[in-house]
Amino acid sequence: MPTNGRAERERLRIAIQKSGRLAEPARTLLSACGLDWRVQGDRLFCHGESLPVDLLLVRDDDIPGLIADQVCDLGFVGRNVLAEQDGERRASGQPSAFREWRALGFGACRLALAVPDGWQWTGPGQLAGRRIATSYPVLLREWLAREGVDADVVRLSGSVEIAPRLGQADAVCDLVSSGATLAANQLKPVATVLESEAVLAGPVEPLEGVRGELAGLLLRRLDGALQVRNTRLLMFQASRDALPDLLPLLPTSQTPTVMPVEGGDRLALQALCGSAVTWQQLEALKRAGASGLMVLPVEGMLA
Ligand code: ATP
Ligand code: ZN
Predict the structure, then answer these.
(1) Which Pfam families does this one have (predicted)?
(2) Which of 79, 173, 190, 214 has the most CB atoms in a 10 Å sphere around its CB?
């Protein structure tokens, strides 16, 4: 891996998870931004081909620290990891060295408080004097403080969900998406400590110089890529008199493009929709006089 770090670097460096839940979606999103890479021998560093933007493949937990140390400029990491490590810095009197730049819409989960199935949950006060196992002690302590509850936080680096069965804790505070892992361990979620998803993390202050320009370019492409994920182009034809009935039925707040069709009174319409178009919406448009209805995915967008 090239050793020139920090200020003199003229290439942008992005850290992503090497393997795990965020690895594949992170690469897919960066590819959608037009980036591609040559994997080098050690397989930890990928040299950017189409743009001077390189990838570093690491454990997700290392990403905030790599940004703080300016080894990397940006990173794709769970909000849970970023918030916990930011809290750790604050708790030890260090200034913030990274922040969330964008939410990325994948890796959704929540950091949840879970108690044994048999508990009749009456509220956070029930945790007073109890032991709670977690890999997120800072976020849990902050939540307990907000709720005014005094409980013992047991820090575990993994297998948090089996702690109650092993007698190490009474409750847990862990990441949940479907809840299946909790259920398999006879636990039930009762409160949310943090809503999380993958985020683009970067330094507190904007990047400057060449890397600042590259980051700006990447952000514009990222915003475009995130926007097109849910965007559809709706196209159809209709007669001019049907227009007043059709316009209120369009599943979009944007004004559609209306074009005359050669040699008649018919119009061709196209509208960008910010979400999937349902069958019900299409059927309603058809009843109001639309024909040749088509819904197309959008490949790219630049505002
Ligand atoms: P690494 O080897 O990189 O340290 P890891 O085991 O810490 O990997 P993963 O299990 O791949 O990490 O999870 C990465 C991120 O995925 C989490 O920090 C979280 O933001 C997100 N995530 C989404 N759903 C879940 C879930 N059900 N359980 C755990 N993490 C989840
Ligand atoms: Zn990890």
Answers:
(1) HisG (PF01634), HisG_C (PF08029)
(2) 173
> Cβ distance 263 to 289 under 8 Å?
no
Which residues of the chain carry a pLDDT beneath 50? 1
For residue 20, report the distance from its CA to the centre of ligand 1, in Å.
7
Looking at the structure, tell me whether residues 117 and 82 fall in a common domain: no
pTM (predicted TM-score): 0.85
Predicted local distance difference test score (pLDDT) of residue 229:
82
**Which ligand number lies closest to the CA of residue 103?**
1
Instruction: Please give the single-letter amino acid code of residue 195.
Output: E
CB 235, CB 294: distance < 8 Å: yes
* φ, ψ dihedrals at 15, nearest 5°: -95, 130
pLDDT tens sequence across 175-224: 999 999 999 999 999 999 999 999 999 999 999 999 999 999 999 999 99
Q: Residue 237 corresponds to which amino acid?
A: Q
Residues, CB within 5 angstroms of ligand 2 (ion): 60-61
Same domain for 114 and 87: no
Residue type, 130: R
Q: Which atom of ligand 1 is nearest to the CA of 107?
A: 23
Half-sphere exposure of 238 (CA within 13 A, CB side): 23
What pLDDT score does 262 carry? 87
What range does the domain containing 242 cover? 232-297
Closest ligand to Cα 16: 1
